[in-house]
């Protein structure tokens, strides 16, 4: 693991690296089990896009409360992060990749109080079927006033979910433009980088299994838009568990790996350093890179799609050799 060097402050009662005056020194991990991490230390303060205009004749929502953190990606991609005034969810529910501004939005829990709702003063409450109880809890406080409550289904196709959030915020036209812009850029990147002639494998380490991804995972869907080729064994939607019998199905010109939590990291380290793995073609030629599991697999949306695309640009454009 590569760390930014620093001197620990005398008398510090934690394990953080600090300057002599006590300030915390940031650390950036650049490798995972001898595999280079793609875009380590990425600046998440730049994830959210520029503001979008409201549709003609629609009233703009200036103060938004969401009941499901899954809605935040779309709001981030629509440039509406500054309008989000509260999140009716437990503290720590905001994915890191959405940046410090959304992470700083007050989390008011599953059952907000009247004072919390009054402080947020929403004119729009954006909810999902799965978190309808949180919206109901806000209504029961009697503090919503004339705020509009809209429910959006974010399960299933990520593009449809994004467009649904765009419509709920009065930005149907802008939402379509944002999707078209992404697809156009992803297609351009694939053409310029000759992505169709690079077979890229996706492998995910969970605490229980090593998974060889098919075409249905979020990252795989973005790869399809770019036009990245996949190994023959990974051209069906199904995700399969890696076993001794299908072990080499994970091999390709380039392998992108990710891990889910500490348990997935431990499993990944065991697999990536095993003789069986290192005997495959891509590991032999140092053509294995590690990507962020949250961005590639667990938090689909347009904001994360741009981050996946940037990862692919880095992977397809850089030297295949690890340092």
TrEMBL record:
Pfam families: Peripla_BP_2
Family matches, as SUPFAM superfamilies: Helical backbone' metal receptor
Gene Ontology BP term (one): iron coordination entity transport
Keywords: Signal, Transport
PROSITE patterns noted in UniProt: FE_B12_PBP
Keyword Nucleotide-binding: no
GO cellular component, one term: outer membrane-bounded periplasmic space
Residue ranges occupied by any Fe/B12 periplasmic-binding domain in the UniProt entry: 63-320
Main localization (coarse): other
Cell location: Cell envelope
Family: Belongs to the bacterial solute-binding protein 8 family.
Name listed for the protein in its UniProt record: Putative ABC transporter substrate-binding protein
Organism: Gordonia malaquae NBRC 108250
């Amino acid at each position: 693991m590569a760390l930014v060097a620093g001197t620990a402050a005398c008398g510090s009662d934690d394990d953080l690296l600090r300057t002599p005056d006590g300030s915390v020194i940031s650390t950036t991990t650049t490798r995972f089990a001898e595999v280079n991490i793609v875009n380590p230390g990425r600046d998440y303060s730049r994830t959210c896009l520029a503001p979008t205009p409201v549709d003609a004749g629609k009233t703009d929502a200036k103060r938004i409360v969401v009941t499901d953190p899954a809605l935040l990606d779309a709001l981030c991609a629509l440039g509406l992060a500054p309008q989000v005034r509260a999140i009716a969810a437990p503290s720590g529910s905001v994915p890191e990749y959405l940046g410090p501004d959304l992470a700083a939005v007050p989390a008011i829990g599953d059952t907000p109080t009247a004072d919390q709702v009054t402080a947020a003063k929403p004119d729009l409450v954006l909810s999902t079927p799965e978190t309808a109880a949180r919206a109901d809890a806000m209504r029961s406080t009697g503090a919503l006033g004339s705020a509009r409550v809209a429910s959006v289904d974010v399960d299933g196709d990520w593009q449809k979910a994004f467009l649904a959030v765009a419509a709920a915020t009065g930005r149907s036209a802008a939402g379509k433009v944002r999707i078209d812009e992404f697809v156009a850029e992803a297609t351009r990147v694939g053409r310029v980088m000759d992505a169709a002639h690079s077979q890229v494998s996706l492998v995910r380490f969970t605490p229980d299994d090593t998974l060889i991804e098919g075409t249905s995972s979020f990252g795989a869907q973005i790869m399809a838009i770019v036009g990245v080729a996949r190994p023959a064994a990974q051209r069906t939607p199904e995700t399969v568990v890696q076993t001794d019998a299908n072990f080499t199905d994970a091999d390709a010109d380039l392998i992108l790996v990710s891990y889910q939590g500490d348990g997935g990291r431990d499993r990944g380290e065991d697999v990536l350093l095993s003789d069986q793995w290192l005997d495959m073609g891509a590991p032999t030629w140092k053509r294995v890179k590690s990507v962020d599991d949250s961005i590639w697999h667990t938090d689909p949306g347009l904001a994360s799609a741009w981050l996946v695309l940037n990862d692919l640009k880095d992977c397809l454009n850089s030297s295949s050799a690890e340092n």
